[in-house]
Amino acid sequence: MARPIWTGTLSFGLVTVPVGLYSATEDHSVHFRQLQRGTSDRVRNQRVNERTGEEVEFREVVKGFELAEGEYVVLEPAELEQISPGRSKSIEISGFVDLAEVDPIYFDRTYYLGPRGKEYARVYGLLHRALADTNRAGLATFVMRGKQYLAAVRVEGDVLVLQTMHYAEEVRDPHQEIDNLPETVAEPSEKELAAARQLIEMLSAEWNPADYHDSYTEQVRELVEAKLAGKEVVTAAPAPESTNVVDLMAVLERSLKQAGSEEPEPAAAPAAKSPTPRSPAAKSPAAKSKGKDKAAQEPDEPSAGPAGLDGLSKAQLYQLATERDIAGRSSMTRDQLLEALQGAGKGAKKRRLRAVS
Question: Options 2.40.290.10, 3.30.300.30, 3.40.50.300, 3.90.1720.10; which CATH number does 6-25+82-170 get?
Answer without folding.
Answer: 2.40.290.10
